[in-house]
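Good day; I would like, with your permission, to put a structural problem before you. A protein sequence and the structure tokens that stand for its backbone fold form the material at issue. I would ask you to consider whether the tokens describe a fold that such a sequence might reasonably adopt. I set the record out below, with my sincere thanks for your time.
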Amino acid sequence: MTEAELLARAARVRLVLLDVDGVLTDGRLYYGPDGEALKVFDVKDGHGIVLLREHVPFGVVSGRPGKASEARLRELRFQHLVFGERDKLAGYARLAHLGIPDAEVAYMGDDVNDVPLLAKVGLAACPADARPEAKAVAHLVTAAPGGRGAVRELCDLLLRARGL
């Protein structure tokens, strides 16, 4: 795909959806002494979201329950949170009430359960360390791995497409 084609897809985006583990985080799970899950988020990804969030809403479609992630996502003002949905198309269907056509949705995922949703949206993205199955259907494969700037690259593309 050419840069012009990628920018054209990006210019149509009215909703950005992200997976959490392997996209907003590096995919590793840390557990505290009381069994609480801890996750690490990259500030570069967060700043990209801050720069873009006034122009397009953000949401999450994640296969794992969201308690550990919810505080960070609320801090970043994510508007749509779908957790505990391994079937990403079913999670996406929970957002159908928004009325945004598939062609105007961007989604970043990293694993095989993300492939059906990646194949459905107008702008499919994945981190550099995504599974080959996800990379095969993505319009954008970032240079950065998940949890280490991949989301920032997607945000930067969307900002460029808007002339910002």
User: Anything to note?
Assistant: Residues 48 and 156 are 7 Å apart (CA to CA). The longest helix spans residues 150-161.
